[in-house]
Design goal:
alpha+beta
Length: 90
């Protein structure tokens, strides 16, 4: 299944760029193919976790190529997953 993953973070978009005085967050949206099956939910969850961890720079390159690089990149995703980060109750 194709999904768009949207991340909001303060990760370094440009190495060495000081963004400590900026307001808000940076958003990156990138398509990912998720595969599941076989009935082993634990294995599927671990596989998706590792797939998402393996996306270089949390997908910022897709948007850079698509919107700044002038490339005709088609985004086939029909589902969007908005990841706002980790929330701690403490």
């Amino acid at each position: 299944m194709w999904v768009d993953v949207e991340g909001h973070g303060r990760e370094e978009a440009v190495v060495g760029l000081d963004v400590s005085r900026t307001v808000g967050w940076f958003t990156s949206i990138y398509p990912v193919v998720l595969e599941a099956g076989g009935g082993d939910w634990g294995r599927d969850i671990r596989a998706v976790k590792e797939l998402l961890r393996g996306v270089p720079d949390r997908g910022i390159g897709f948007g850079a190529l698509r919107y700044l690089g002038g490339h005709e990149l088609v985004d086939p995703a029909q589902v969007s997953f908005n990841y706002l980060g980790r929330y701690d109750a403490g």
